[in-house]
Amino acid sequence: MSINFQSNSGFGCALLGTAVVILFFWSVPVAGQSSDENLAIEHTKVTASAVGAKRFEIVSPRQSGITFTNHLAGLEYYKNMVAHNGAGVAVGDVNGDDLADVFLCNIQGNNALYLNQGGFRFKPVKGPQEMKAVISTGAALVDVDGDGDKDLLVNGVKVGTRLFLNNGAGGFELSEVSGLENSGTTTSMALADVDGDGDLDLYVAHYIDWMHLADPTTRFEYSRRGDKLMVTRVNGESTLKPKWKGRFTVSNTGRVRELPEADRFYLNNGDGTFQDVSIEKRFIIDGESRSLSSLREWGLAVTFRDVNNDFLPDLYVCNDFASPDRFWINQGEGKFELTNYSNIRHTSRSSMGVDFTDLNADGVPDFMLLDMLDPNRARRLVQLEKEVERSSRLLDWKYVPRFNRNVLMISQDGPLWFDTAYYSGVEASAWSWNVRFLDADLDGDDDMLITNGFAFDTMDMDASLKLKSVQKGSRKDARSLYELKKLQPRYNSPNQLFRNDGQLRFAESGPAFGFDHNGITYGLGVADFDNDGDLDFITNNLNEPPSLYRNTSQEPRIQVRLKGGVGSKVRLRHANGAIVREIFSGGGYLSGDSGEVVFAMNISGKKIKESSLEVEWPDGSLVTRVVDLKANSIYRLKKDVSPEKRSTTDVPSDKPMFLKKLDAIAFRHFPNLTKDYDENPFLLKRLSATAPPALSRDFDGNGWLDVGFQLPRSGAVQVFLNQDGKRFLPLASKYNDPSGLMENTGWLDGFTVVDNKPSFEESLNQQVPAMEINQSLRLVLRADIDGNGFADALYITQDSMLDHPAGSQAFVYLQNDDGFHRAGSWEKSLSELGHVSSAICVDIDNDLDADLLIAHEAGSIKLFENRDGSFLDISESVNLAGHVGLWQGLAVGDFNDDGRMDFVAGNIGRNSPLEPYQENLVYLSRSEEPRMSLFALQEKGKLLPIDDMDLFSRVVDRTTLPQSYHEFSSSNLTVVLKSFGSMKQTEINCLETSVFLNRAGKFERFALPVEAQWSPTSGISVADFDNDGLEDLVLSQNWYSIRPDLGRLDSSAGMILLGEGQGSFKGVSSGRSGLAILGECRNALIADFNHDGRSDIIATQTLGEAHLYLGQSEKRGIRLIIDSKVELAKRLGCSVHLLYPDETSSPPRWLYSGDGVLAQCSTEAVLGFKQWPSSIQIVWSDGEKQTILVQPGIYEYTAQ
Q1: Which residues pair with residue 432 across a beta bridge?
Q2: What phi and psi, each to the nearest 5 degrees, are found at residue 737?
Q3: pLDDT tens by residue, 799-856
Q4: How far, in Å, CA of 475 to CA of 478, rounded?
Q5: Of the chain's two ends, which shows fewer C-beta atoms within 10 Å, N or C?
């Protein structure tokens, strides 16, 4: 779908391909304490509460008077799995005394309302809201009828949603005419003015009243009706009865699926009643309007937030089990459209909680989803009772998978979010329910509170096997079957507080902050209970009193409270930026907050300057602005009662750097996939999912660069002929392959098209003698290796499943007047290559001969110097040997403008399943039979597993492994894998995609920017994309061919990094770059395909179509064409740069054979400039120099 986005980071700031709205405000200076009904602003000075031993101190039940306990006991504890979804809490001022009160839901007992007496003392109040003999789940305190006080909404099992209207003094009466469904099983709820009529509409998540598939006493009877299996009886009762009708389905394999209830959507009538519109077709999926009642899904959490800044609340619904999450964008008039693969790439599998905030300050809310992955390695290896996506589905880049872990979605300046959970350190928080963003330490960055725990560790494989074994034994009565749940251990896990470091990294700091209750906690309600300007909170625990937390923060802060402000956005502006918070209602897991928002007045320890507040009201009222802010204050604001609305002015937004040309090139890469994981279940990714060999040349000699691809599944190439830079016409051709040189660009090197007829007569692979090889010969490099004036050929093999993890072999063919000849001495010098992932042959040390730079997967980068008729490994002497990583593609350039050749290298990045172990990660490998490779954790002299015992049982005798998964989790792999004999141990110490700067012959490594580390980088290409005279990069990223249980690494749309001239780079979000390469992109071709003086990109995708992106930079660059008449040996490895009138120059650009990942560089260059150049200087590979004078206003030149 297409989501219209407007800016929220600053009024008048452009975002993405749409008009931006400039808003006009009214402003009022506020100083000291004041109250003015005309201005609707009240300001109160506050004093921080007493200092505590920790930032959050628990106020005991004796002190607070909150003696409530959320009960679940007796046989029901073991029978009712729905009840274990828990009970929540709602907070808010119900009696108008400006103190936040507390309502607590109870599973097995009465609900409780506590009125705040001040000083963290509360008094219980009886009334119909107690809902005796009901399983209550979620609650929210919100003004439903528009009379200015907070009414109460309560969800529960088999009671639907109940509305209790407030009499203004905190007394509640059950509404008998609310219009809300009153017999379903409901969980969380959220409210917002969905249709813009001035009142709050309601979305309620529904679940199921009883989980029969989790009930060991349930008996099913089946029959076949036609070609379908049907459940005909449940516990002896006919499924034709209303209670069973439509509840179960059966797959062709006999697997029963239980269908939950559909969620409900209500429009507010404005008088304390609602209209159920769930059966109306208001929800659009793939262009088709659907009713909400047609979607029977396992709803757990729901929240309204405006994610695209169009003043319409959008909707996120977290679903359990087989149901996918639903992320709906508000289309107006109470209608929603579902996002798709172009917006989010994956979600959690069993999403329980969700919350939004703008973590990267791009004006678009980011969001966190919770699941059930434990942060402890050993526990993860026991908790295996979970579903895993199929490998074949993960390769489909239009499929949105779900993974068994938390997901942190970071927006990309527009309608696309990428998951950074591994990078951010929040992928695992145990069995988690509720997440809430707030600035816990008042440093200006939002931290994260998470509640945890479950009564039974249903994922514990040891317990699950024991339970199944007992169930298969002697027959038991119903009570005994239920009590078998005792075999599953209680899953106590501490609540967690993740502290934000301001760079999208979080550290678990619960114990230090005092938020680490170790038990089972469901609901979380946030409010300023003592009116000291910070946020306190309360949690609803299972079978113990709630935890009431007093915030003892002393840092300066301001708090904002809005009257009737649900959906409003409050923005604190200051000299260095802005922070925005949205007021929402409900939206927590089974819980609702009071609605205050708090801003730190110190950021990074420094007092903010030039601060002001702005309130953007959802109904279009004039924006409220408050200046001259005073720290340690509460500001109470109402919207302007004037009928005048904010005015807007449309301003055209900046166009993105690249324009995608749809259907310009009809190439799809289909690798020759094999069953890699059958051979080695520990593989990180499929070896058979190789990159497409690609090359850009003017094959038909018409002056336009064409592109060609080797087809891995057949002995053929597919060439696309450039039609004036607008589109490419395909031309496929087969070749005879006597030499076995199949999977490389050698058939395209020298390939020509004459009169639309293909010819391989001059192809490199046609000229090279046949060879006998037992590996895939994928890398081919061209350079004048021996300095005789001919372009030689260097082939390097890469392993396959037949010999993985064997080292690569090199085949060197030197060319002279008689053709190509094997060069044994050169090959011998490359006999210890290791596992090569990419290579470049270019003169790195500037001594006029071609050196060899090689990247290793699970190894270091090596530099082989061309010396005296062989290659000499000098890696250690140039400081490369110590950087051991999973290195991928390579590219060279002068990135700090010192005239020396630097290089960049791709890596897996810092956002993968290896990240939790990166400090002590070891790669174990054996290249001889029996072959094996895997990763392990080195800890206290032991090699510990990070993969589960089921995988190991596929490669070693199961009887040699420990009896239990728990015992295996602490096993030493040296013992487990002893049948494989000696294995090489490689300590991995670098996972970052990096730049290596040449410091007078020695290289210094620096990690590329954060955004570059969010997804693996395969290929890298160098160009000046913005034509500013500094070298930029484009990274080919994403791994979809990763092992299914590890998920999918897909947090990139193709990364543009703009050079800053000192060896540093700045990332460009996809919203600003215009790139949307969402599939697995392993390499790209860069050239000026449409002759406009701007670098364009053709990006390939595994099992997906190639994309053409045309550069749209404001400046045009100097386009240099190397005439084909120039000897190949001379132009391969040459460098070009611009000379300026002030005798400075642009960085040199090297034109060489290959970017390291099966793609070849262009024979042309587009050179950006800082000032209009006086000349172009070319340094040919043999050292000869050529100067071309640049004429004013002339942008194209040819070197001959």
Answers
A1: 452
A2: -130, 75
A3: 888 889 999 999 999 999 999 999 999 999 999 999 999 999 999 999 999 999 999 9
A4: 10
A5: C
CA 205 to chain centre: 25
Query: How many Å apart are CA 747 and CA 710, to the nearest integer?
Result: 8
- Asked if residue 34 has pLDDT above 70, the reply is no
Residue given tokens 């709205």 in the structure block: 21
Note if the bond before 124 is cis, omega within 30 degrees: no
805: preceding bond cis by omega (within 30 degrees):
yes
In Å, what is the CA distance from 426 to each residue of 346, 423, 447, 487, 509?
16, 8, 11, 30, 12
Dihedral of the alpha carbons of 94, 98, 104, 110, in degrees to the nearest 10: -50
Closest to 343 in 3D by CA, of 1105, 1009, 1053, 913: 1053
Sequence letter at residue 1056:
I
The span from the CA of 253 to the CA of 229, in Å, is 9
Sign of CA dihedral 288, 293, 299, 301: positive
Whole-number Å distance between alpha carbons of 962 and 106: 43
Closest C-alpha to 839, from 874, 868, 802, 798:
798
CA distances for 212 relative to 73, 84, 485, 585, 738, angstroms: 20, 14, 15, 33, 64
How buried is 1130 (Cβ within 10 angstroms: 0-12 exposed, 13-18 middle, 19+ buried)? Answer: middle
Q: How far apart are CA 243 and CA 178, in angstroms?
A: 25
| Percent above pLDDT 90 for the chain | 86
User: Which amino acid is it at 288?
Assistant: E
Residues 734-774 pLDDT 10s: 887 655 566 788 889 999 999 989 999 999 999 998 877 77
- pLDDT of 22 higher than 60: no
C-alpha distances out from residue 397 to 342, 408, 889, 1013, 1160, Å: 10, 19, 22, 20, 25
Dihedral angle sign, alpha carbons of residues 960, 962, 963, 965: negative
Task: Give the end-to-end CA distance of the chain in Å, rounded to a whole number.
Answer: 50
Question: Which residue from 326, 339, 334 is spatially nearest to 369, judged by alpha carbons?
Answer: 326
Furthest C-alpha separation in the chain: 101
Dihedral through CA 274, CA 275, CA 276, CA 282, nearest 10?
-120
Residue-wise pLDDT tens digits, 1032-1068: 999 999 999 999 999 999 999 999 999 999 999 999 9
Degrees to nearest 5, angle at CA 799 with 796 and 800: 140
Q: What is the pLDDT of residues 900-945, one digit of tens each?
A: 999 999 999 999 999 999 999 999 999 999 999 999 999 999 999 9
Q: pLDDT tens for residues 1004-1040?
A: 999 999 999 999 999 999 999 999 999 999 999 999 9
C-alpha 594/C-alpha 103 separation (Å) is 11
The CB density around residue 684, as the number of other CB atoms within 10 Å, is 24
Q: Is 679 helix (H, G, I), strand (E, B) or coil?
A: helix
Q: CB-based contacts of 578: which residues, under 8 Å, 6+ apart?
A: 9, 10, 361, 571, 572
Q: Over the stretch 340-356, which tens digit does the pLDDT of each residue have?
A: 999 999 999 999 999 99
Distance CA 320, CA 432 (A): 13
User: What are the tokens at 892?
Assistant: 């060279």
Distance between CA atoms of 272 and 143, rounded to whole angstroms? 9
Residue-wise burial string across 512-548, b where 16 or more C-beta atoms lie within 10 A, e elsewhere = ebbbbbebbbbbbbbbbbbbbbbbbbbbbbbeebbbb
Query: For residues 90 and 188, what is the distance between their CA atoms, to the nearest angstrom?
Result: 11
**Among candidate residues 620, 644, 627, 658, the one with its CA nearest the CA of residue 21:** 620
CA distances from 304 to 202, 263, 594, 679, 988 (A): 10, 15, 16, 47, 43
Distances (CA, A) of 934 to 404, 446, 984: 22, 38, 11
